[in-house]
């Protein structure tokens, strides 16, 4: 996954390790959410079966990192805010999301600099969505 094609610069998705690494991060994120009581409130907001979420978040992060954009093409006009219409984000649940994602990214054993940037950006997104720091 380290190779750029002739016409395309290396994306964060490539540098991270592509699909297997994104999937590993997402699986770890939902495994943590299911197993760690610290995330019980966040877990309770989600449907009992997390299989569709594992696929959707993998697709979103793939596009967000500069990889294939299927997630957006399959959901014309959807954005992160509209994907959460009807979801009441609170400061505690935003913090739980940010914390579980930070751990999941750290556990992926990807390039440490890239992993740190990714965890920071995603945690920041979640905290913003939860109104933390406003
Ligand atoms: C602020 C904290 C957050 C909370 C409490 C939260 C909660 C939720 C909930 C309850 C759902 C619906 C789940 C279901 O139907 O089972 C959802 C969907 C989703 N969330 Fe979040 N979320 C948060 C932040 C984020 C962030 C930061 C991202 C991306 C970086 C994200 C990506 C997604 C995606 C891709 C979906 C599925 C959309 C779809 O396929 O329709 N979420 N979220």
């Amino acid at each position: 996954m380290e190779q750029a094609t002739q016409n395309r610069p290396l994306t964060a998705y490539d540098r991270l390790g592509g699909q297997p690494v994104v999937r590993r991060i997402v699986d770890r994120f939902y495994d943590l959410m299911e197993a760690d009581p610290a995330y019980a409130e966040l877990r309770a907001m989600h449907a009992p079966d997390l299989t569709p979420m594992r696929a959707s978040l993998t697709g979103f992060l793939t596009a967000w990192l500069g990889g294939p954009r299927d997630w957006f093409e399959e959901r014309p006009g959807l954005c992160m805010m509209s994907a959460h219409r009807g979801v009441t984000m609170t400061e505690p649940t935003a913090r739980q999301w940010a914390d579980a994602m930070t751990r999941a990214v750290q556990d992926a054993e990807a390039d440490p600099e890239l992993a740190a940037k990714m965890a920071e950006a995603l945690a920041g997104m979640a905290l913003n969505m939860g109104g933390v720091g406003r």
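The mean pLDDT is 93. Residues 18-35 form the longest helix (18 residues).
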